[in-house]
């Protein structure tokens, strides 16, 4: 189980409760206002943060385990996990994922 708190503003927040298999559980707190515009902005900000957390979990879930892979006869080995930025509909997410390179020929 992974836990992490993501705060996004005064009185608001998204908390990652757990990741179990293919399920991500989060808790969202949204500050409502007497201004509908402010309430809508707070809702959008909270939902975007929720989307970023879920997308980060999905990218990590889909990553390889770092084992060597073969593509069209070439063996590719991981250089380790490297940070990679992804543009999502919810905002930018930076995830450490395995990066591969061809095995050097001698």
Q: Percent of residues in helical segments?
A: 25-40%
What order do the SSEs take from the amino end to the carboxyl end, as H and E?
A: EEEHEEE
Mean pLDDT: 88
The chain-level structural class is alpha+beta
Distance between the termini: 44 Å
Annotate the secondary structure layout.
Elements: E1 4-9, E2 12-20, E3 23-29, H1 36-62, E4 69-71, E5 74-88, E6 91-102
Antiparallel strand pairs: 1-2, 2-3, 4-5, 5-6
Based on the model shown, name its key terms.
3-stranded antiparallel sheet; disordered N terminus; 49% strand; elongated; 106 residues
Task: Describe, in short, the structure shown.
The chain is an alpha+beta fold.
In words, what does this structure look like?
By secondary structure, this protein is an alpha+beta fold. It has one domain (4-102). It has 1 helix and 6 strands, in the order E-E-E-H-E-E-E. The protein has one helix at 36-62, and strands spanning 4-9, 12-20, 23-29, 69-71, 74-88, 91-102. The protein is elongated and about 65 Å long. 7% of the residues are buried.
